[in-house]
Amino acid sequence: MTTLLEFRQVSKQYGKDPRALTDIEFQVHEGEFVSIIGPSGAGKSTLLRCINRMIDASSGEIIFNGTNILKFNKRELKHLRTQMGMVFQHYNLVDRLTVIDNVLHGRLGYKSTLQGVLGLYTSEEKHQAFDTLKRLGLEDQVFKRCDQLSGGQKQRVGIARALVQNPRILLCDEPIASLDPNASRVIMEHLRHISTTMGITVIVNLHQVDVALKYSDRILGVNKGSIVYDGPPQGIQDPAQLSAIYGSAWNQLQEELESKREREVVHV
Ligand SMILES: Nc1ncnc2c1ncn2[C@@H]1O[C@H](COP(=O)(O)OP(=O)(O)OP(=O)(O)O)[C@@H](O)[C@H]1O
């Protein structure tokens, strides 16, 4: 298995606050599906956003495809970001634009400023955008404005936008936190399918433990800025492991898991 991403002693401190991440170390292989779980404020978003340098780590090394990306200049960073698609909790779409226009925005990293401003996309890019929307079941929505879509459809547009970048990795920050259980299942199945059939590495931040267990090859459990679990989903079914990850939030999680066993998705 080829290592695509490696964190070496990565720490992040916001100003004079206590460190949000402390000496984070892990590796992710090409094509792996990894979920990051942990209580609120544990550092999940900070960790995910350090990968594409939306947030700059304070120290350590982040090795992507063999190179330390913390040393990248502006031009190298622009190229790096074409290889990393990002999917957001609140979709980050331009609501007044059509679905296809939003998806084509995924190609902007490959364009000059002028080409981007003028919306100069090739017919190949337009075909790719359409095919990707079809793959995500949105072929009937291509020319709709995004503000006319449901949350689940908007998130699929967000995924399509990330995919037309031809990324090597998809970073998904709470992709189902704003969705109902049914739409959440559709999104997670698409992400899993993308990883399995396209070989794209997927890293997902999740609040839903049961969803993480169901879809992931591997789980990273984060608590107070440190990785306290790195292993397969099976290992995390041990209550001691969940307690180590969730700390004082564990009791609340346990109660929710028990009382809402019938529900499809459990929010921590
Ligand atoms: N821009 C910022 N400035 C200062 N502190 C921040 C900033 N962003 C995050 N933090 C702090 O860093 C820590 C980790 O936050 P982060 O958002 O990464 O956690 P999280 O696990 O994603 O939380 P949640 O699940 O609630 O989204 C928290 O203590 C948070 O208050």
UniProtKB/TrEMBL annotation:
Q: Which SUPFAM superfamilies match?
A: P-loop containing nucleoside triphosphate hydrolases (SSF52540)
Q: What's any one GO cellular component for it?
A: membrane
Q: Which PROSITE patterns match?
A: ABC_TRANSPORTER_1, ABC_TRANSPORTER_2
The UniProt record lists the ABC transporter domain at 5-249
Q: Which Pfam families match?
A: ABC_tran
Question: What InterPro entries has UniProt attached to this entry?
Answer: AAA+_ATPase, ABC_transporter-like_ATP-bd, ABC_transporter-like_CS, ABC_transpr_PhnC, MetN_ABC_transporter-like, P-loop_NTPase
Q: Provide the alphabetized UniProt keywords.
A: ATP-binding, Cell membrane, Membrane, Nucleotide-binding, Phosphonate transport, Translocase, Transport
Reading the lineage from the top rank, the first entry is Bacteria
**Which GO molecular function entries does the Swiss-Prot or TrEMBL record give?**
ABC-type phosphonate transporter activity; ATP binding; ATP hydrolysis activity
> What is the protein's given name?
Phosphonate ABC transporter ATP-binding protein
